[in-house]
Amino acid sequence: MKETQKTSALNKKDTSWSGRFNEPVAELVKKYTASIGFDYRLAPYDIQGSIAHAHMLSVQGIISVADFKAIEGGLLAILDEVNAGQFEWLLDLEDVHLNIEKRLTDKIGDAGKRLHTGRSRNDQVATDVRLWLRTVNEQVISGLKKLQLSLLDLAEAHFDTVMPGFTHLQVAQPVTFGHHLMAYVEMLKRDVARFEDCKKRINRLPLGAAALAGTSYPIDRELVAKSLGFDGVCENSLDAVSDRDFAIEFTFASSMVMMHLSRFSEELILWSSPRFAFIDIADRYCTGSSIMPQKKNPDVPELVRGKTGRVYGHLTALLTLMKGQPLAYNKDNQEDKEPLFDTADTLLVTLEIYADMMRGITVNKQNMRQAASEGYATATDLADYLAKKGMPFRDAHEVVALAVRYAVDQKVDLSDLPLAKLQEFAAEISDDVYAVLTLEGSLNSRNHIGGTAPAQVKAAIARAKSGIN
Ligand code: ARG
Question: 233 with 279, same domain?
């Protein structure tokens, strides 16, 4: 009798809202609360997670093996539909999870309705996001390494190309272009380490937490973790469904990469401007102006600089999304996806485009050298020369400042001053000073690990290359 009543109650229900409600959700609310417009891209991971979950349910005797087989077959067929672009995503079904579950049930009947045993969309979505992000995280690491390799190629070609090194954007001391590029290789090395580290936090299984408190079914979480390639399970069910710090961490690491590339972009923009004319960026990375025929604009580096703000915005959005949430799951968390997806999309395409842009950079060695020799870039070398002859460095600094002032007045370089003139500033100076005042002399003297001497730059390139696997 009881059973009949239940069945008839279910049969009577011909609407898509649950028995708990007296009226359907308002159309606008449906649109407002749905996430299918963006979370459809989790579909392959949702299916992967569901198969692992259903398998565990069957191993544990919670559902039959026959039901598991039906679920697995149905889900794989749905995956084919998704991959072929044939799956029809319905707004009425709110999100990727409900869309797939409904389709499964339409396909295989009651077995499909058993899939959701012992889980909730809360642990399901957390699992999907982690599976998706784990893949993306690997793609980012590989993109970073490819960019490093392309920077290394350029650095290798310019291990001894002289350019002015800047502080305060003023010519400071000569460096090699290769050395300058290697600074970015170092930054990217740390970025790779950040994503490697982030993976440890991403790669934990939330499933089993169910809605928030765990489940009364005799589940085997370790088995699910193992079959999905997770390093282990999230150890607290409340934390498992509500935590998104792994996503925030990924977005932070992404922001850091963008910050590094934005700095570099700023330099590319400056160097490629006719005022500097240090480099030329291949035409395929630039655009013209619709009104000024002479213009060749460095659009790609400018956009990288601009998109950095966008990724920072996503980091702020995610941090702010979490800050007011009490445990455990709240619908707020649905808002994690768009910032996270856009962060990944922006970063991955930026890394790809950057690696190729490096291959399209040509260097105007003459202009770089000219700029280095015009800025009194070897003044420190003269002070060091005097200090090595016994003059206290502070005094040497002052003496050279006077010599530079004189040379500026005369509109000549330090190395253009005759020996007798230089000796008026310091009697210690003899004709071996000219070797010190040359750009090559300055570079070669900085011959220690981390220094700009071409021999050191070569060694740094070799070390970096051997570190990239
Ligand atoms: N679309 C939801 C999200 O992205 C899935 C979880 C829904 N859970 C719930 N209790 N309403 O977070």
Answer: yes
Domain count, the chain: 3
Indicate whether 81 pLDDT > 70: yes
Two tokens, residue 328:
């455990």
314 annotated active-site:
no
C-alpha span between 295 and 339 (Å, rounded): 35
236, 165: one domain:
yes
Residue carrying the six token digits 């499909």: 112
Q: For 48-77, what is each residue's pLDDT tens digit?
A: 999 999 999 999 999 999 999 999 999 999
pLDDT band at 17 (very low <50, low <70, confident <90, very high): low
Least confident of 212-216, 373-377, 460-464: 373-377
Q: d(Cα 461, Cα 299) in Å, to the nearest integer?
A: 29
Query: From the CA of 46, how far away is ligand 1's center (Å)?
Result: 13
- 8 A C-beta contact, residue 269 and residue 299: no
Q: How confident is the model at residue 6 (pLDDT cuts 50, 70, 90)?
A: very low
| CATH number of the domain residue 255 falls in | 1.20.200.10
Which residues, other chains included, contact 345 with Cβ-Cβ below 8 Å and sequence gap of 6+? Answer: none
pLDDT for res 295: 79
Instruction: Report the C-alpha gap between 232 and 272 in whole angstroms.
Output: 50
Q: 105 and 137 share a domain?
A: no
Q: Structure pTM? A: 0.93
Give the residues surrounding ligand 1 with Cβ less than 6 Å away.
35, 39, 95, 121-122, 125, 329, 331, 333-334
Q: Which domain holds residue 440?
A: 375-463
Query: Which of 41, 133, 334 maximizes ligand 1 atoms within 8 Å of its Cβ, making it the mutation to test the pocket?
Result: 334
Q: What is the mean pLDDT of the chain?
A: 95
How large is the greatest C-alpha to C-alpha distance in the chain, in angstroms?
117
- Residue 184 in domain: yes
Question: Are 78 and 226 in a shared domain?
Answer: no
44 contacts: CB under 8 Å, gap ≥ 6: 79, 82, 83
Do 211 and 322 share a structural domain? yes
The share of the chain scoring above pLDDT 70, in percent, equals 96
Concerning whether 262 is annotated as a catalytic residue, the answer is: no
Residue owning the nearest CA to atom 4 of ligand 1: 334
Token look-up 């500033």 returns 425
